[in-house]
Amino acid sequence: MGNVRQKDIAERLGVSMTTVSRALNGSGRVKKETCQRVMQLAQESHYMVNSLARSLRLSDTRTIGIVVPDISNSFFANIIKGAQGICHDRGYMLMVCNSDENPLYEEGALMALLEKQASGVIIASVGGSRETVNGYRRANIPVVYIDNVPSDAADYDLVSIDNYKAAYALTQIVVKRGYRKIGMITGPRKQSSARMRYEGFINALSDAEIPNNADWIREGEFTLESGYAEMMGVLSLERRPAAMILSNNKLAYGAIRAIYEQGLKIPEDVAIASFDAIDGTGLVRPQIVSLNQPAEEIGRRACQMIIDKLTGESSGQERHVFLEPFLSEGDSL
Fold this sequence. Notes:
This protein is an alpha/beta fold. The chain has helices at 6-13, 17-25, 32-44, 47-55, 74-90, 103-115, 130-138, 163-176, 192-207, 224-235, 249-261, 295-310, and strands spanning 63-68, 93-98, 120-123, 143-146, 157-161, 182-186, 217-219, 243-246, 271-275, 289-292, 320-323, 326-328. The chain has twelve helices and twelve strands. A six-stranded parallel sheet has the order 2-1-3-4-5-11, with helices on both faces. Strand 8, helix 11 (249-261) and strand 9 (271-275) form a beta-alpha-beta unit. It is globular.
């Protein structure tokens, strides 16, 4: 389609330019099927790259974008807080986008940041954003991944924890507390963070000579609703696990709700351990045993990495920075 425009996409699909604009920017009401058609054609016609070429300025706009899947999750809120602090100190503005765990919204957010001429982007990806991210890279706009990294990503910058190592360690903690009937609710394993936590869990059980029970291992989304639904499924089994490991805080909160609704107690009937379930007040019961990512530091380091590239203070080589998680004790285990 050559130097494609939004008008060309609209004419090709037989929809209005307003619909195309809303689909590309993740704003307004657009039917899911229409949004998918717009995104697919935009990718096939390299609209993102052409849009970048038209909108890119040679100067640093001193604006950094961040795309997270759930802005209501305290983990991502603290990442944003850390990035905001660095932006403030270095004279940059932070633009925040929420993908709502939706790959189409993620694409729209990335393209909107492109059109707003963001100088760099921090992204916790939930989908296949490779073509858009490659458009950024071809224009020398730095992108830093946090949390999940798409499976086909190459030569990327990353700030995270070692999710495999962390899940292995958390499973060891549960085992050392005397539990052998252990299950897990993971996030979507197409995402690297969920997959690595699952693999760390499985291998820790194997090394402890504890068989894994497939009925006790459920794959869901990183949401409260998914944690509730998957835990209800586990609790409906004739033979239940004695302990469950949850791949993030929202899954843990949903699972706990399900346990209480069934009239069960924590940890007497089902023990709980989780990632990133931090209660800063100390008022919530039970206090969840949790292995936590240093969220603010992740945001700071990712933002600093981008600014260093923009200002020529880095070598330009791709960097993978793995930070250490920390354990919060509690009475859920």
